[in-house]
Amino acid sequence: MSTENSKGYNKKSVTDVDVGGKKILLRCDFNVPIDKETGKIRDEGRIVAALPTINYLLEHNAAVIACSHFGRPKGEFKPEFSLAPVAESLAKHLGKPVKMAKDVIGEDAVKLAGELKPGEIMLIENTRFHKEEEKNDPEFAKKLADMADIFVSDAFGSVHRAHASTEGVSQYLPAVSGFLLKKELEHIGGAISNPKRPLVAILGGAKVSDKLGVIGNLLKISDAIIIGGGMAYTFFKAEGGKIGNSLCEDAEIESVLKMKDEAKTRGVRLLLPVDSVAGAEFSDDTDPVTVNSNDIPDGMMAMDIGPKAIAEFVKEIAGAGTIVWNGPMGVFEFSKFAEGTRAVANAVAGSNAVSVIGGGDSAAAVRKFGVEDKITHISTGGGASLEFMEGKILPGIACLLDA
């Protein structure tokens, strides 16, 4: 990757600016799962993840105006999408009151922000209560920015979107990263722009079309690429294999053949699963059968990688210096088809490599198999980490001040 692109990761953070006595607009990711029956937050992980930045700001005498989107209220005030439960949870974790505004840029938010003193924190309502948020409307962004002196971005899961609260406000305020975002930039940026060799990329998931950009970028920088999950069977079909009812994207057959050629030209080892575990129907009740991946019987679909593939992938992972993993090896939610993903998770955890897991299903898998504490970095962003690995310039990162 060009040094110019890797420079894009080197951004100022909260520790590079004087926040004392200043009002900080802090963009968090408080898009948490809430139980529809009880209205209680089911998983406070994202709230806990925001605490280091919040505590740093409060301890350094800043007044914090926190904001976030939550769900998809489609530009309307809807009580079920209120951030009020988040304010309660945040107050509990911080051990201090969190003032909750009744609106986003309205009278109440502006009044509370005006009265907010250093060492105090408030939360404004769901930014998506205004349709101008997702349109990145400059007037809406300016009203948000007018409440503060500095913008701190700490919501990595949203930096691939140019919204008012992720990018627009940076037109009116000096913008820096919080600790959570800084960690993402260092780990993913570092793994891709300056990896310890060999760099082994592991890609899985259902669709090859979702990962074309990522594979394209990783082919330029990886030593080996392991491909599992449903996306592998488009490769097998492209080579004339029989794949039964396995997932396949016929429209991408030409793209995957080009990728194979490029891998050969660049000397990148492209590993596909030689065998697969298949079933007659998409269910945990179906009987698993191990078959060759390019000869899957009619009426059967591949749902996991097989034992030979596991052995080959695990051996490749063991020799890695850096590992980037995005997407499971099979339907790991079904116990009979979880072995491939479990084996890969254990191999990544047991390796001496710097390991970076790009959010979503792979993050869920390492948590499910209890190895998350042995992974160097688990990304908090699904779509954002994918686009970051693609080498795309993300608007919510590009807008931050360069270090």
Supply database-style keywords:
403 residues; alpha/beta; 6-stranded parallel sheet; single chain; 2 domains; 17 strands; Rossmann fold; disordered N terminus
Explain what you see.
The protein has 15 helices and 17 strands. The protein is an alpha/beta fold and 403 residues long. It folds into two domains: 180 residues, Phosphoglycerate kinase, N-terminal domain (Rossmann fold, 3-Layer(aba) Sandwich); 195 residues, Rossmann fold. The strands form four sheets. Strands 3-4-2-1-5-6 form a six-stranded parallel β-sheet, with helices on both faces. The chain has a six-stranded parallel β-sheet with strand order 10-8-7-15-16-17, with helices on both faces. The longest helix is centred in the N-terminal third of the chain and has 15 residues. The chain is elongated and about 70 Å long.
Provide a quick synopsis of the model.
With 403 residues, the chain is an alpha/beta fold. It has 15 helices and 17 strands.
Helix and strand arrangement:
Layout: H1 3-7, E1 23-27, H2 45-59, E2 63-67, H3 84-94, E3 98-100, H4 107-115, E4 121-123, H5 131-134, H6 138-145, E5 150-153, E6 175-177, H7 179-193, E7 199-203, H8 212-221, E8 224-227, H9 232-238, E9 242-243, H10 253-266, E10 269-271, E11 275-279, E12 289-292, E13 295-296, E14 301-305, H11 307-318, E15 322-326, H12 339-350, E16 354-357, H13 360-368, E17 377-378, H14 383-389, H15 395-398
Parallel strand pairs: 1-2, 1-5, 2-4, 3-4, 5-6, 7-8, 7-15, 8-10, 9-13, 15-16, 16-17
Antiparallel strand pairs: 11-12, 11-14
